[in-house]
Amino acid sequence: MQYQATETGHLSGFSIEESCGLTNEEKYYPVSIQGRWQPYGSGGGNLVVALSRDNVLSVFIFGEGWTHWAEYTLKAGDKIISYFNDALQAKARLYKTEVKPIANSNPTVSQSSNPDEIRNVNIKVLLHEDGSADFTEVWNVKVASGTNEWYLPRGNLGDIKISNLIVTDETGREFITESDDWDIDRSRAKKAGRCGLHRTDEGFEICWGVGSKGPHVFTVSYNMSNCVKSLNDYDMLNMMLLNPGLSGDPQNVDVSISADCATLTLENTRIWSFGYEGTRFMGDDGSVHLNNSGRINYVTALLRFNKGIFNSVSVQDRDFQEVYDIAMGGLESKK
Fold first, then answer.
1. Is the C or the N end of the chain the one with fewer CB within 10 Å?
2. Residue 166: which residues within 8 A CB-CB, separation 6 or more?
3. Cross-strand bridge partners of residue 270
4. 101, exposed or middle or buried, with CB in 10 Å at 0-12, 13-18, 19+?
5. 3-class DSSP assignment, residue 31
6. What is the arithmetic mean of pLDDT over 46-64?
């Protein structure tokens, strides 16, 4: 460790930035911690903490006409890069942006700079007479090195409540479901084998720790109340089942929607879907099926039910035509 000078003080205004904050950009990873250094005396300067590609952690303080620095040579930069990626991911979720994980240029274990791979998503929705629904989602994915958790945003919930969350992985291990608000700022190790709900301004995120990079199959089940809405003339399900802006592009998505209180048919149910290139059809098993054959941006299902199938307490004082007209402002899937 080398010091140009030594003094004591305090730090403020920390932020994680997607740049090294230094002029020699090629030497450092495109990420840094920046803030303000104020010594217990006069003066002060801007703080930059950056990691070089040869695993040297550098701390700079730039004042007026002077620069202080310290350098720490690390045996491996994997853990520091993991901390940086955790912070970048938390910031991206806070500001609803996307971020590309930082890959180690000099790793102790081989890492990939590729994004997460979402190989297959299977979503089954079972509707109940009271308008609630049980969801079972199977996510076949390959986790990238910078990812420490998976999460499913659920927004615009209104009177919908999420409960009975269960997550298992490909080994059959059932994760610990946390009762408190999910802490998104924890490390990968502290999130591993755990799941929970994180409150957001739009609603909730269903979260679980990935445990390790590489291939995984996560099975996520939960209940949502008041999914079916009672309208003046019909009942309906109008819900986004797969969100846009995922950490990787889904290759295949298969959605099925059924009811345990009646057999859905083309006589009692009408189907619309949005956000993907693919098909929608009523199966012989009484289930609505949505499948992609091309690009997927998101998947939203709009189902109109005849009265008498459901007895939902979630009532909306409007006709289905109003919902339909609003929905047609988007793009239907290509049959």
1. N
2. 174, 175, 177, 195, 220, 221, 222
3. 304
4. buried
5. strand
6. 79
The residue count of the chain comes to 335
Q: What pLDDT score does 41 carry? A: 61
The answer to whether 88 and 31 have CB atoms below 8 angstroms apart is yes
Q: How far apart are CA 168 and CA 77, in angstroms?
A: 31
Q: What is the pLDDT of residues 66-77, one digit of tens each?
A: 666 677 766 555
Tokens read off for 49: 């903490």
Token pair for residue 46? 């801007």
Half-sphere exposure in the Cβ direction for 155 (13 Å, CA): 10
Residues 35 and 13: beta-carbon distance below 8 Å: yes
247 touches 142 (CB < 8 A): no
Token pair in block for residue 51: 């990691």
pLDDT higher than threshold 70 for residue 284: yes
Backbone φ and ψ for 68, nearest 5 degrees, come out as -110, 145
**With 80 as the cut, is the pLDDT of residue 90 above it?**
no
55, two tokens: 């695993």
Strand pairing report for 2-3 and 66-73: antiparallel
Residues 148/187, Cβ–Cβ less than 8 Å = yes
**Long-range contact list for 4-9, CB < 8 A, 24+ apart?**
4/67, 4/68, 4/69, 5/68, 7/39, 7/40, 7/41, 7/68, 8/39, 8/40, 9/37, 9/38, 9/39, 9/40, 9/41, 9/44
Q: Which residue has the higher pLDDT, 164 or 47?
A: 164
Neighbouring residues of 206: CB distance < 8 A, sequence distance ≥ 6? 151, 152, 154, 162, 165, 195, 197, 220, 222
Listing DSSP states for 172-198 in one string gives -PBPEEPSSPP-TTS-HHHHBTEEEEE
Structure tokens at 315: 């009532």
- The whole-number pLDDT of residue 111 equals 39
* Coil, strand or helix at 80: helix
Residue 147 confidence (pLDDT) above 80: yes
CB 29 within 8 A of CB 146: no
Arithmetic mean of pLDDT, 251-277: 96
Distance CA(182)–CA(196), nearest Å, equals 5
Residue 254's pLDDT is: 97
Question: pLDDT at position 76, please?
Answer: 54
